[in-house]
Amino acid sequence: MSRNQWQEQDLLAVARDTPLANLAKNLGYDLEKWIPTATTSLPETLRVTKARHDREWTESLLRELGGAPLPWAEDDFAWQMPFARGQAPDERSKYILSLLHETGRITRQEAASMLPVVVLNPQPGQLILDLCAAPGSKATQVAEAVAPNGVVVANEPVSGRVNMLVSNRGRLSTSNMLINQQDGRHIGRIPPPGYDGIVADVPCTGSATSRKNRNVWWKWSPKESRTLFRLQVEITTRGASLLRPGGHLVYSTCSIDPCENEAVVAQLLRQLPYLELVDIDESKLNGLKLREGLSDWDVLDKESNPLPRGEELPRTTFLQPVHMSPAARRHWMDSVDEDIDEKLEMDIEAQLPKCRRLIHHDNDTGGFFVAMFRHRPEATPEGIARTFIRRRQPTPESEWVPLVLDQPHTNRHTIYAAPQKIIDEASTRYGIVPDEVSWWVRGKRLNIAPKMVYDRIFNQKCPNKRGNLWPEGTFHPLKLIHAGLPAFTKKRGDWRSRQEAVPALHPLITASKIVVAPETLQRLLTGWAPLLEDYNDEFEPIVIDGPLLLSCELSGGEELISAWAGARLTLMMDEKGRDILRLKLAMPFQHEEEEE
Question: To 10 degrees, what angle do helices 326-335 and 342-351 make?
Answer without folding.
Answer: 160
